[in-house]
């Protein structure tokens, strides 16, 4: 059975950790499709600044400010050309001596909307270093409806009624304070459409729900 590509982008150090000049950084793109399709990295819709490995890695031995920008992964499949969600890599000056626990600018720049096709799948994950679980915001009342005790939330065979706002919330007061600083980045709007593509967001330890152009060309 033919499956259109879905994408999972990961980073080392993990998402939310501030990136400074001179640090080693790796980005990885995994593509799940049938037949198999190879990942191809792009930065700002052009070739990336470093050569990618056959396994889908972009390895920066000493990252620089000019490496900041929008990264995405594309795949050429027998059904067309597909693209992952975009990811904004934010590289800070080396002179920074005091940094937040999370790169708030990077997290908030990701946007808060995920578009998924009717019958498609989407996976959300709380930022690394936090303790939380996913809830759904009830329309009209604003009440939080728990939908699992895990930091990951996967929706398969999505229906129209599953569209709406989802939040990662923390049970502890200490974690709530940490999450409050980036609460806008932790509220995700899932939009269900009848288009024949999907935006697929990440795996565990990822938080990268970016507004971008998953595109298909036939």
Automatic annotation (TrEMBL):
GO biological process entries: cell-cell adhesion
Domain Ig-like, residue spans: 5-77
Gene Ontology CC: cell-cell junction; plasma membrane
Membrane topology: Single-pass type I membrane protein
Entry annotated with the keyword Glycoprotein: yes
Matching SUPFAM superfamilies: Immunoglobulin (SSF48726)
UniProt-annotated location(s): Membrane
Cited SMART domains: IG (SM00409), IGc2 (SM00408)
One MF annotation (Gene Ontology) recorded for this entry: cell adhesion molecule binding
Keyword Membrane: yes
Keywords annotated in UniProt: Disulfide bond, Glycoprotein, Immunoglobulin domain, Membrane
Chief localization: membrane
PANTHER family linked: IG-LIKE DOMAIN-CONTAINING PROTEIN (PTHR11640:SF155), NEPHRIN (PTHR11640)
Protein name, as recorded: Ig-like domain-containing protein
Native source organism of the sequence: Rhynchophorus ferrugineus (Red palm weevil)
């Amino acid at each position: 059975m033919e499956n259109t590509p879905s994408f999972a982008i990961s980073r080392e150090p993990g998402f939310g950790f501030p990136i400074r000049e001179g640090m080693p950084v790796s980005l990885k793109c995994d593509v799940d499709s049938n037949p198999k399709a190879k990942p191809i990295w792009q930065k700002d819709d052009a070739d990336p600044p470093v050569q990618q490995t056959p396994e889908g890695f972009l390895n920066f031995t000493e990252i620089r400010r000019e490496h900041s920008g929008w990264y995405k992964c594309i795949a050429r499949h027998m059904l067309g050309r597909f693209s992952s969600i975009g990811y904004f890599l934010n590289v800070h000056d080396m002179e920074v001596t005091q940094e937040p626990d999370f790169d708030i600018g990077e997290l908030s720049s990701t946007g808060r909307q995920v578009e998924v096709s009717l019958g498609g799948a989407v996976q959300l994950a709380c930022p690394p270093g936090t303790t939380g679980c996913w809830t759904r915001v009830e329309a009209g009342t604003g009440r939080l409806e728990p939908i699992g005790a895990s930091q990951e939330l996967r929706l398969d065979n999505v229906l129209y009624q599953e569209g709406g706002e989802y939040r990662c919330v923390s049970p502890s007061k200490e974690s709530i304070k940490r999450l409050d600083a980036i609460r806008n980045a932790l509220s995700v709007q899932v939009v269900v459409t009848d288009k024949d593509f999907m935006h697929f967001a990440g795996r565990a330890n990822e938080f990268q729900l970016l507004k971008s152009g998953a595109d298909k060309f036939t």
